[in-house]
């Protein structure tokens, strides 16, 4: 399965310095321990997959990484320096962009207005300071073409795009605004086969530009198709990281489910899970 | 949303969109079509006096007073919120303005900014409660509909010594140099000049039948242009659409959603204050029933103008035309043989058609099937 992938995988140098390193992160909500010691790092130009079943703590983990939650315990190093993000804005400015499942896109608004939402280019100053619509449209069209999507026009409403195209707009937007690390929360979970492969191709393009991609998924096939390293999260803990080629889909699947039970289940389903 | 700059490199696989289908996507299309239809209806059924200069000014004046409110309401609706208290706000701002002028004896240059500040403050209270509590703005502003109306009554009785009217504003403001900007007719010289040339209708003694354009019409036009510019050509405009379209998505993208919404409540309240100031100076008195039910009329005008009740879509130009439809119908019926009370039926019908139409347009824009 790992050999027939069509993507040229990221050449992660053995000693490449990670952009973000998360060490032994714990996060408690009252008496609930959502994360109980998670370690994770991401290097430039790689796609690091974070796999886990529902309730494993994936969402809490992403939110900690993107500054929505502050860890109860543990350390986050950004380019080697300890850092704590007070707000999502902080992590965004540092270069960590998160594409959540809702994509932060507004269907009624045009692609170009969505692309620049909250970060509109302006021209003029003082009272004549205005939204530079022409520039916004140009950049949107160029960036979308780079990602392989030809829009009908920059004023096309996002609502008319397919799920995969929307995902691509969200990714293109994050990359355009200088993301060093791109966190993708289940980007393929709601997509069909063709759209999924488009999104995986987009991830590959982004990776080749030197961006570190954190790909969160519970789909082992999608992860193996594009990932360079794989970390499995189970019941709030990381169960270790494996490099591409070191681990089989079955092993990953087992780790995600916590071993035993799924092995039995899989037996009865004759390997279809 | 009107951004249709030609593309240097077009994709050969994509057909050029026909003009009609591009026009169908404009939110104000329905309102413009409505103006045309209503105009045709009255051209056929009404006395020809309706479409003379004085007739047009006759129906544009109530349209303008409503329109100033409707533009505020439209911007707030695009931002995803409602304000049911704007009608009461007209009375309340009128009361405050009346007190400034009559009780405190302030000149307009002080009284007017003070009234705007005060109204913005009341709008901000509305906004902050809505944002902080997360309650629907519908219910919060419904409470203020009654609170402000009640306060206006109580306040007027206090200020006037028992009456629900405060008279004498005209005498107090007549000689104020700022009064012409907020009352009376603009460009009287131009109309007198036109009358001399015989270009406009005159009375027998040579004075023009229309002595000028009522200032509220100018305010109305200027406000519509400014609001459109803000919505379509400034970052703030983009934030308004974003905040109304999906406030979570907008704030995740770094749009200051709370600030935008509270500011919109303040702007809406200031629109109410503008109407209050204009009508109080014009009528020379303020009373507690001023602006009664205007909140509904303003929202109807905004909806006829293409605003979605769910926010994130609409236009100020649409609200502009929606208000003109409104004025035409209210005044136009007096030029016809119809019973004037048909007006409400007409209004309800227009609203229903507009909502159905908007819904269809929204599906078209978003490609929903």
From TrEMBL, chain A:
The gene is rbsA_18. Its EC number is 3.6.3.17. CDD domains: ABC_Carb_Monos_I. One of its GO terms (molecular function) is ATP binding. The keyword Hydrolase applies. PROSITE patterns: ABC_TRANSPORTER_2 (PS50893). The lineage of its organism: Bacteria, Pseudomonadati, Pseudomonadota, Alphaproteobacteria, Hyphomicrobiales. Residues 20-260 form the ABC transporter domain. This is Ribose import ATP-binding protein RbsA. Transmembrane segments: none annotated. Keywords: ATP-binding, Hydrolase, Nucleotide-binding. The keyword ATP-binding applies. Pfam families: ABC_tran (PF00005). It comes from the Bacteria.
TrEMBL record, chain B:
It is a multi-pass membrane protein. This is Xylose transport system permease protein XylH. Pfam families: BPD_transp_2. The chain crosses the membrane at residues 29-50, 56-77, 84-104, 110-131, 138-157, 177-196, 217-242, 262-286, 298-331, 343-361. The keyword Membrane applies. One of its GO terms (cellular component) is plasma membrane. One of its GO terms (molecular function) is transmembrane transporter activity. Part of the binding-protein-dependent transport system for D-xylose. Probably responsible for the translocation of the substrate across the membrane. InterPro entries: ABC_transp_permease (IPR001851). Keywords: Cell inner membrane, Cell membrane, Membrane, Sugar transport, Transmembrane, Transmembrane helix, Transport. PANTHER family: ABC TRANSPORTER PERMEASE PROTEIN YPHD-RELATED-RELATED, XYLOSE TRANSPORT SYSTEM PERMEASE PROTEIN XYLH. It is found in: Cell membrane. It comes from the Bacteria.
């Amino acid at each position: 399965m790992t050999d027939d992938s069509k993507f040229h995988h990221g050449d992660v140098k053995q000693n490449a310095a990670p952009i973000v390193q998360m060490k032994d992160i714990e996060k408690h909500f009252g008496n609930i321990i959502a994360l109980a010691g998670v370690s994770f790092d991401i290097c430039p130009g790689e796609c690091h997959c974070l796999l886990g079943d529902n309730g494993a703590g994936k969402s809490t983990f992403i939110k900690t990484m993107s500054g929505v939650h502050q860890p109860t315990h543990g350390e986050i190093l950004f380019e080697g320096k300890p850092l704590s993000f007070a707000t999502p804005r902080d992590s965004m400015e540092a270069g960590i962009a998160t594409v959540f499942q809702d994509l932060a896109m507004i269907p009624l608004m045009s692609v170009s207005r969505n692309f620049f939402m909250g970060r509109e280019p302006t021209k003029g100053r003082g009272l004549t300071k205005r939204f530079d619509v022409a520039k916004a449209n140009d950049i949107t069209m160029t960036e979308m073409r780079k990602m392989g999507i030809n829009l009908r026009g920059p004023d096309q409403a996002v609502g008319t795009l397919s799920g995969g195209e929307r995902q691509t707009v969200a990714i293109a937007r994050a990359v355009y605004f200088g993301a060093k690390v791109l966190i993708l929360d289940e980007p393929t979970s709601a997509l069909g086969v063709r759209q999924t492969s488009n999104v995986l191709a987009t991830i590959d393009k982004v990776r080749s530009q030197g961006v570190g991609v954190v790909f969160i998924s519970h789909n082992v096939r999608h992860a193996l198709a594009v990932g360079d390293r794989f970390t499995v999260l189970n019941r709030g803990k990381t169960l270790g990281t494996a490099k591409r080629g070191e681990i089989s889909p079955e092993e990953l699947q087992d780790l995600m489910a916590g071993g035993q039970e799924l092995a039995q289940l899989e037996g009865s389903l004759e390997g279809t899970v | 949303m009107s951004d249709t700059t030609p593309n240097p490199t077009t994709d050969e696989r994509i057909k050029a969109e026909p003009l009609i289908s591009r026009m169908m996507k404009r939110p104000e299309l329905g309102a413009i079509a409505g103006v045309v239809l209503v105009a045709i209806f009255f051209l056929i059924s009404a006395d020809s006096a309706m479409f003379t200069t004085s007739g047009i000014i006759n129906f544009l004046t109530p349209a303008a007073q409503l329109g100033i409110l409707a533009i505020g309401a439209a911007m707030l609706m695009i931002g995803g919120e409602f304000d049911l208290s704007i009608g009461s706000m007209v009375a309340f701002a009128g009361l405050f303005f009346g007190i400034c002028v009559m009780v405190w004896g302030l000149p307009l240059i002080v009284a007017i900014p003070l009234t705007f500040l005060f109204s913005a403050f009341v709008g901000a209270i509305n906004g902050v409660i809505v944002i902080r509590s997360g309650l629907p703005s519908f219910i919060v502003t419904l409470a203020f509909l009654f609170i402000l109306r009640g306060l206006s009554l109580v306040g007027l009785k206090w200020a006037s010594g028992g009456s629900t009217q405060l008279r004498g504003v005209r005498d107090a403001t007549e000689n104020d140099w700022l009064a012409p900007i907020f009352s009376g007719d603009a460009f009287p010289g131009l109309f007198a000049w036109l009358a001399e040339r015989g270009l406009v209708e005159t009375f027998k003694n040579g004075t023009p039948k229309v002595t000028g354009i009522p200032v509220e019409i100018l305010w109305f036009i200027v406000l519509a242009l400014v609001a459109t510019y803000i919505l379509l050509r400034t970052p703030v405009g983009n934030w308004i659409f974003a905040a109304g379209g999906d406030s979570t998505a907008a704030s995740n993208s770094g749009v200051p959603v709370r600030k935008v919404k509270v500011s919109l409540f303040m702007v809406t309240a200031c629109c109410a204050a503008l109407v209050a100031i204009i009508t109080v100076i014009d009528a020379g008195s303020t009373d507690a029933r001023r602006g009664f039910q205007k909140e509904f009329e303003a929202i109807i005008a905004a909806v006829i103008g293409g605003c979605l009740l769910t926010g994130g879509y609409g236009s100020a130009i649409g609200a502009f035309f929606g208000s003109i439809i409104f004025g035409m119908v209210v005044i136009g019926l007096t030029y016809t043989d119809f019973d004037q009370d048909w007006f409400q039926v007409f209004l309800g019908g227009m609203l229903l058609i507009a909502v159905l139409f908007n819904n269809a347009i929204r599906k078209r824009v978003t490609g929903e099937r």
